[in-house]
Amino acid sequence: QVQLAESGGGSVQTGGSLRLSCVATGRIFSISDMGWYRQAPGKQRELVAEITREGITTYADSVKGRFTISRDNANNTAWLQMNSLKPEDSAEYLCHVDDYRYGGYTGQGTQVTVSS
Asked: Which bin fits 8, alpha (ψ -120 to 50), beta or left (φ > 0)?
């Protein structure tokens, strides 16, 4: 099993910043993609950002230019830097990783609340 430890969530005002962290431990062969999903009450889960092992990134249109995803392959860690936060960014943010051998894992999530 792969364990994902997420941290960095919290409450900020509109325009504020937060930095989420995700550390993968446990039975890891080699992690390919790392990413962040978010889910707000009553809404579908959506992919926020994703990064390949080679550093290729993908972002949801709603966060382009405001969020930056990065990773450290040696330590199986990913970060999501979130700037210029808006109330519509409020959600549970869940880390997801794909291991080449053991498949996909999703964390428990960390709450982000942005007040106007």
From this structure: left
